[in-house]
Amino acid sequence: MISFLKIFLLFVLFMARVHANTNSPVELRVQLPWLHNAQFTGLYVAEFRKHFEKEGIKVNLIEGHPDKDAAKELASGHVDISINGLAGAWKASQDGAQITNVAQIITGSAVLLVCRISSGVYGPNDIVGKSIGIFSEYDKAIVKKLLQKKQIPEDAVDFIIQQPEGIDLVNNKVACVTALVFDEYLSIMEKGVPYSDLIVIDPATYGIPILIDGVYVRTADLKSEAFRHALIGFIRAMRNGWRETRIAPNLSVEAIKAKSNNFDREHEVKGLESMLTIIPSDPRKFGLLDIGTFQKEADRLKAGPEENAIAERIWTHRIWNQLQAEDGERHFLTVGTKHYIEEISRLTIFKILVFFGVFTYALSGVLEAVNRNYDLWGRLVLAFLSGIGGGTIRDLIIGGDRLPFYYVSDYRYPLGIVLVVVITSIVSAIYPDSYKSKTFKQVKKYSDVFGFSALAVAGAVYSITSNLPWFWAPAMAALTCAGGGMLRDIVINQEPVTFKGVIYEEAAIIGGLFVVAGLYLSNYFEHSSLPEYITIFSGMAFIASLRLIVYRYDLRYPKFLGGQETSH
Fold it and tell me: What residues form DSSP beta bridges with 118?
């Protein structure tokens, strides 16, 4: 009996220990890139307000030092997370480390070139022949890129390694210095340089973004589900810390004071004010790394003509996407997929295809007007209704960034339609039966097919990039193709032929679903835009094929669904 009790007690103790270990918080060592200051207030507030504890994690914030490289500390295994810039992470990856950005804290312009007007600098062009203070080769590369943008020779300025806190600018040893908006820039004014004597040159204004304060982890650690879960909690807690910092910045300064060994209240208050301007105020965007910004800085950081495959894949949205899903903000496409679609929609070839579709539809409207003996004004009206009517209805439904209408901001659409009307009117006046010839009808038929496919895919793309739910994509594809024709038919008091059994919009709907399915699969290839290209252009080919099959076999709805026996 006693032995049984001993065994039972040992079992209870063992299970209690297992239970305790299961519920023990996950420990995360976080390496900061610099000394404790306002730059990391959100982390301090999250710790003080026990947001990390609520997420089941215990965070150890390790202070940075000028001689300590945060990225190397991570790569060597001394810490689990490092907060550092893309430049440091990129260099570490070039040296063989495999680390990944899972969230971006600072998204605004943090690195500036600060100059004194009294040194003769009134703008970027005035730095020629001047001395510029830099902290590192990285700063030097930023200034060189700025010189390149302004078409100024690199040897037109002298680079000098500057002292901390912008002292060289204060003492007029240099005309300009590189400075952080929340640190050195403030120190320069605190040391007596009046604001009226300073001019700030923001590299981002010239297309030179600088990503600092990203959340990096070892790539191999992302294979662990437990670690990914802890990361999601870490980012959510940090987001809450910055949200509460924004609500009560003066109280949040006390969290800095508790951490800093060299606390200067006035400096930290101003630094925190600056930090809040470069961190997203919208919680739904906190932590999101913008791929376009990354690509611009990556282009500048590439060491040679050949791309480093590891460095190119130094980021992932996997953790951020999961955080959004847990917050109920998940979209059916990832940020990466939408970014690549937007890139494709800005391509010249894509725009040409859309123009072709619009002008082909405008031609149909003109020919209808000519056939009805309408005057020039009537021809213009039918051409505009046919060419841009569907896109207008689509953009009214979408709203947002699709307004004002695309043809209002881009004169090429109305100008092109006017030219179509004028040229068609001249040709029809000289050759009245030209548009009735068999050759013209064949050319017109195939032009309509390819114009239809381009507009259908464009409608789906614009719906997706405007963040509409997935089921609107096929609807917008059909509306873009058929909306103008329906408006034209209303004006000329004619029943839409596509309501009489002709298979027309249906091809756009099926094509829209094809595009949605292809893009959904593209979510699994976040570092490549190739799947998106394949989806978009194969979608056009697929829709064109459907339309050609309908033409070839004269496919129609059956009679019980409204189909007619007469050929269309």
Answer: none
Say if residue 371 is in the same domain as residue 441. yes
CA angle, corner 538, sides to 534 and 542, nearest 5? Answer: 160
- Euclidean distance between the first and the last CA atom of the chain, given in angstroms as a whole number: 95
Q: Which helix (H) or strand (E) holds 361?
A: helix 348-371
Query: pLDDT digit string (tens) for 263-304?
Result: 999 999 999 999 999 999 999 999 999 999 999 999 888 854
Looking only at Cα atoms, what is the longest distance across the chain?
115
At CA 164, angle to CA 159 and CA 170, rounded to 5? 75
Mean pLDDT of all residues in 394-403: 92
Which CATH number is 159's domain given?
Answer: 3.40.190.10
Whether residue 13 is predicted with pLDDT greater than 50 in this model: the reply is: no
**Rounded to two decimals, what is the model's pTM?**
0.88
Q: Which helix (H) or strand (E) holds 257?
A: helix 249-259
Q: For residue 555, tell me if it sits in a domain.
A: yes
- One-letter identity of residue 342: E
Domain enclosing residue 182, as ranges? 111-206
**Is the sign of the CA dihedral 401, 407, 412, 416 positive or negative?**
positive
Q: Where are the alpha helices (DSSP H) in 523-562?
A: 530-553
pLDDT digits (tens, 9 = 90+) for 48-107: 999 999 999 999 999 998 889 999 999 999 999 999 999 999 999 988 899 999 999 999
d(CA 227, CA 353): 46
3-state secondary structure 260-299: CCCCCHHHHHHHHHHHHHHCCCCHHHCECCCHHHHHHHHH
- Say which DSSP state 464 is in: H
Angle at CA of residue 121, ends 116 and 126, nearest 5°: 155
**Are 321 and 270 part of one and the same domain?**
yes
Residue 277: Cβ within 10 Å count: 12
Query: Measuring CA to CA, which residue among 74, 73, 83, 80 is closest to residue 58?
Result: 80
Strand 111-116 and strand 26-31: pairing? unpaired
Rounded Cα gap, residues 211 and 294, in angstroms: 8
Rounded-to-integer distance, Cα 330 and Cα 319, Å: 12
Helix (H) / strand (E) element for 92: namely: helix 86-94
Residue carrying the six token digits 């097919």: 449
User: Hey, what amino acid is at 119?
Assistant: S
Which single residue is written with the structure tokens 């963040």?
Answer: 467
One domain, residues 227 and 196: no
Burial of 442 (0-12, 13-18, 19+ CB in 10 A): exposed
Question: SS3 for 66?
Answer: coil
The H or E element containing residue 227 is helix 225-247
Tokens of 274: 């600056």
Tell whether 199 and 320 lie within a shared domain. no
